[in-house]
Design brief:
It is a single chain. The chain is α/β, with parallel strands linked by helices. Helix content is 37%, strand content 22%. Strands 3-2-4-1-10-9-11-14 form an eight-stranded antiparallel β-sheet, with helices on one face. Strand 17, helix 11 and strand 18 form a beta-alpha-beta unit. The longest helix is centred in the C-terminal third of the chain and has 22 residues. The structure holds fructose -6-phosphate.
């Protein structure tokens, strides 16, 4: 994964690179570095840890340096080699003339490394990336190929994925970028060029953008640029696109953590989606209009995604099958790519992604497109790879999500899927007009918002319960039907930010194995709406209770039975199936948030994670 930003222009590159890295930190934050050309030498500063460490290091050196207008920078999420300073990017070739930043994985790094070692090239890091820069250096230093030809020659010999930017001291006015499988964007302004692994480090400077495709390279020299093929030295005609996208300033407001702020923002984000996507008798999903004929006549739907977005997909399946009676399969994007799903031009493939840059999801979209499926993106970032590579789509528009643990994006995805299911049901006439009217009762939206507010108001009591369980080492989360994915999501949130082991299960499935874990120390979180599964869940609770497990219940039911069974009970307002899912999710988000805070964890940037997983 990792983030890349590069600059060529007249300004000091460091402030531009550092502010770009901060915007890209969602892609990885275990180390960071910059390289620029100063006095005919590549000057590199790298630090293990977050971009702040790098910024401090640069600021302490800077007074004595003219940093120049050409530089490359990187924030890393380690794949090959520990997350330390030695393995941080940029990397250098042996001659110290060429420096490179890289996203992706060079899969055949081992044979290339052996070959280079046989040529007396020594390595300073444990990374696959260093192999690539050394290979470029090897070709360049043999003297037969120029800089651009050397980059091309090396890229033609590597397998795997790359998005790279390369500098060479012998060409102090030049920067070369290339991609295969790992997105890169070129931003163009009068006399200035910006490269990013997405548009986030670029949009505040220019909205003139070229998205590089696979096997394309951007060769920037003085005030000119050319887009060429990696395969051959031919220029490719390429359109400059004007993007209309702003990135809000990152501001925690009155909150200590972005995650907490984003949990609270759900009143607005869900409210906005409800209002923007509905009228009293129809659902508005304009991004799908061009393909709606094909979508409504498709014979099956696949939903593909990763992590939290995959959980939203499970909820989507339930809603679509319930409302529109179309079979839906939900697959992890990483599995979808390699399995044998039956996909053709009568299949809809919905890819869900907050960031729009998740490599597994992009690979699944590529496969679905290859098979002729109607690909739909449900994505939060306009201009992202998922938005561009699907045939049509819906933006969740819940604003930048910065906390690594996804919160408001999940509930926005569910809301969009809810509307998608209703629209499909309407088109397929699987729902009567009167039922549809009930679901699109706009006068309910303010009540939904009030319900969310009332859950958020309970956060003091949720905090107390969370603190009580902060030392547990394992949790079970149990729910049925629509609330089984809520259980999975609750468990994932807890694992991610508090490092406590947690599993989500369908409540009844728990007795087929996981119940062996239950003892007096084990908290079990039950999600219990008063619906047709209620009686069965009570039996499941009893089964845990009789093994002395601790019972935490999230419910909309005021029953005495539940109060008697629960060690702790969190009551949410009585509402619809859809809204219960949202309210229970928010309770569980707050619950894991307060446990993580009580344990002193880094809530917004948990260990080993990144906001966007851009390697497969
Ligand atoms: C969990 C989380 C991850 C992401 C997953 C997919 O809180 O954030 O599980 O949901 O990596 O990311 P997107 O949605 O950006 O494709």
């Amino acid at each position: 994964m990792c983030g890349i930003v590069a600059y060529k222009g007249k300004k000091d590159c460091y402030p531009i690179l550092l502010s770009g890295l901060k915007k890209l930190e969602y892609r990885g934050y275990d180390s960071a570095g910059v390289a620029s050309i100063i006095n005919n030498k590549i000057n590199i500063t790298k630090r293990a840890g977050k971009v702040k460490e790098l910024e401090n290091a640069i600021n302490s050196k800077k007074s004595s340096q003219n940093c120049g207008g050409l530089g490359i920078a990187h924030t890393r999420w380690a794949t090959h080699g520990e997350p330390n300073q030695k393995n941080a990017h940029p990397h250098l070739d042996q001659s110290k003339k060429i420096s490179l930043v890289h996203n992706g994985i060079i899969e055949n790094y081992d044979p290339i490394k052996k070959f280079l070692k046989s040529k007396k090239i020594t390595f300073k890091s444990d990374t696959d990336t260093e192999v690539l820069v050394q290979l470029i250096g090897y070709f360049y230093n043999k003297g037969k190929l120029d800089f651009e030809q050397s980059v091309r020659a090396a890229l033609q010999r590597v397998d795997g994925a790359y998005g790279i930017v390369v500098l060479n001291v012998d060409f102090p006015e030049m920067m070369i970028a290339a991609r295969r499988g790992s997105p890169l964007v070129l931003g163009i302004k009068e006399g200035e060029f910006f490269i990013g692994s997405d548009i986030s480090p670029i949009v505040s400077y220019t909205q003139q953008i070229i998205y590089l495709n696979d096997s394309e390279m951007a060769v920037i020299n003085k005030n000119n640029y050319q887009i060429k093929s990696v395969e051959k030295d031919v220029a490719l005609p390429k359109k400059v696109e004007k993007i209309d996208y702003k990135i809000d300033d990152f501001d925690k407001g009155k909150f200590k953590h972005f995650m907490h702020k984003e949990i609270h923002e759900q009143v607005t984000t869900i409210g906005n989606t409800l209002k923007a996507r509905s009228t009293k008798n129809s659902v508005l999903l304009h991004g799908l209009s061009e393909y709606w004929e094909e979508i409504q006549s498709a014979d099956k739907i696949y939903i593909t995604a990763c992590g939290t977005s995959w959980h939203a997909g499970l909820i989507g399946k339930n809603l679509i099958e319930r409302f529109a009676k179309v079979p839906v399969h939900v697959e992890y994007a990483s599995e979808f790519r390699y399995n044998h799903s039956i996909i053709d031009n009568k299949t809809v493939v919905i890819a869900i992604s907050q960031s729009g840059e998740t490599a597994d999801t992009l690979a699944a979209i590529a496969k679905a497109n290859d098979y002729g499926a109607i690909t739909i993106g449900i994505c939060n970032v306009p201009g992202s790879s998922v938005s561009r590579e699907t045939k049509c789509g819906v933006h969740t528009r819940c604003g930048h999500e910065i906390g690594v643990a996804s919160t408001k994006a999940f509930t926005a995805q569910i809301t969009v899927l809810y509307f998608f299911a209703l629209k499909l049901a309407d088109s397929k006439k699987t729902m009567t007009k009167s039922v549809m009217k009930k679901y699109l009762d706009l006068s309910m939206w303010p009540k939904y918002m009030d319900d969310i507010k009332s859950v958020l108001k309970k956060e003091k009591s949720i905090k107390k319960i969370a603190e009580k369980y902060q030392n547990a080492s394992d949790f079970l989360y149990l729910g049925r039907g629509l609330n089984f994915p809520v259980a999975l999501e609750g468990a994932l949130k807890l694992k991610e930010i508090s490092y406590i082991h947690a599993e989500g299960y369908p409540a009844a499935e728990m007795k087929h194995g996981p119940i062996a874990l239950v003892d007096k120390n084990m908290p079990n979180v039950f999600i219990v709406p008063k619906d047709k599964t209620y009686d069965k869940i009570i039996s499941n609770i009893e089964e845990i209770k009789s093994r002395k497990g601790k019972i935490i219940i999230v419910t909309d039911s005021r029953d005495k039975i539940l109060r008697d069974l629960a060690d702790d009970l969190i009551l949410v307002p009585k509402t619809t199936h859809y809204m219960f899912v949202i309210l229970a999710t928010i309770v569980l988000q707050l619950f894991s948030y307060f446990i993580a805070v009580a344990k002193g964890c880094d809530v917004d940037q948990p260990r080993n994670l990144a906001k966007s997983v851009t390697v497969e």
